[in-house]
Amino acid sequence: MILLLLDFDRTVFNLSRFLHDEANASLALDYLFEDAGRLLGALPENVTPAIISQATIIGEDLQGGVDWQHHKFAFAPALADLPFCVTTMNKGFVLAAGVTIVRDGELAVDAGPIQGTYEEIILIDDNAASFKPLIASNSQIAMYHLARPGEKYSDKPATASVGRITSLDEAQSILLAKP
Asked: Is 109 in contact with 117 (CB distance < 8 Å)?
């Protein structure tokens, strides 16, 4: 089994469109990127998807906080049945501490609502900063930087040990090529 960890904002959730619509009091019902819907609809049976998000709390600013993340999650109904882990620290630190190697090289995950033992773990995130703690810990997690054209972190380079994709359609191709 493969665990596919997908970052929330700007990876599967169109945060830019959501913030624009919210500012104009014209919220839609679904802010899932179209390629995220295609990816989730075409996952092989041996792939288990889960969503992980970092809440940012600056002083009294609730925008980006844990409750805010859950509020936005409600605007991605296709994700409703997936485990959703919200952390206030860098996702890389959470995963570096929450993933251990167990028997026969399998990876055990203990990250809040994301639990289980997997043969492989893949993290896809738009923010290259999430990968740094995993690289430093020699993590066994496969990492892909999603550099969506025009999005906030698309121009931030990741290191050579992190794959680079520009859409989740590319991720789908990678997953379908796995045995």
From this structure: yes
